[in-house]
Design goal:
By secondary structure, this protein is an alpha/beta fold. It has six helices and eleven strands. Strands 6, 7, 8, 9, 10 and 11 form a six-stranded mixed β-sheet that branches. It has a five-stranded mixed β-sheet with strand order 3-2-1-4-5, with helices on both faces. β10, α5 and β11 form a beta-alpha-beta unit. The longest helix has 18 residues. This is tRNA (Adenosine(37)-N6)-threonylcarbamoyltransferase complex dimerization subunit type 1 TsaB.
Length: about 220
């Protein structure tokens, strides 16, 4: 097994290689505006670090969000393209699940990432491998009663200490955590879903109202 994992659902552009036992190379850079520019060089970098070529990859793991439309689609389209070019399966893993796995907490806790517009993408977890709720997008104040007293991880939690007073790192997801989680599930015989994006809301870019289409006569 050689899994290539990547995620662009948060400001982190993160890539890792997992050989079925452990992570053998990884790269993470935080830049919310350069996902498309940074992702492929990061893939090249981890392959070079591992001394491997792309055709050695036997599967691709992609973080499916939730995340903003523009950043998220960079990673998903890249993963799908690699899968088609190499003829290997592409597996989707929820980005929040990757953060929960990396947090390695016991007992109930919350994962929250920054959704912008003064909102967070979030979910509750029983432990680092068990999600209790579907991912959602809400204003922190609107979910305060549902997360009260719980530890929290992720950039969204760190941004809103009034709602998440027990917030701590990790701030962003790592492809290393996604790869380890995916490898663990695959080794246990679990089928991972296809990489369908979790947008949860419409993209920021909208067609203006009263837009007039001009066509030649």
């Amino acid at each position: 097994m050689l899994l290539l994992a990547l995620d662009t659902a948060t400001p982190a552009v993160t890539v890792a290689l997992h050989d079925g036992t452990h992570v053998i190379a990884s790269s993470s850079q935080v830049d919310a505006r350069r996902h498309g520019e940074l992702l492929l060089p990061a893939v090249d970098r981890v392959l070079a670090e591992a001394g491997l070529k792309l055709d050695a990859v036997t599967g691709v793991v992609a973080g499916i969000g939730p995340g903003p439309y523009t950043g998220l689609r960079v990673g998903l389209m890249t993963a799908e393209t690699f899968g088609l070019a190499l003829g290997v399966p592409v597996h989707g893993v929820c980005t929040l699940d990757g953060l929960a796995y990396a947090a390695d907490l016991e007992g109930p806790f919350v994962v929250a990432t920054d959704a912008r517009r003064k909102e967070v993408y979030w979910a509750r977890y029983a432990d680092s491998r068990t999600r209790l709720t579907d991912p959602a997008v809400d204003r922190p104040a609107d979910i305060a009663d549902r997360v009260a007293g719980l530890p929290a991880v992720g950039a969204g939690a760190l941004l809103y200490p009034d709602t998440f007073p027990r917030a701590h790192e990790p701030e962003h997801v790592s492809a290393s955590a996604l790869a380890c989680l995916a490898a663990e599930k695959l080794a246990a015989g679990e089928e991972l879903p296809a990489p369908r994006p979790l947008y949860l809301r419409r993209p920021d870019a909208q067609v203006p109202k009263n837009y007039k289409v001009v066509t030649p006569k």
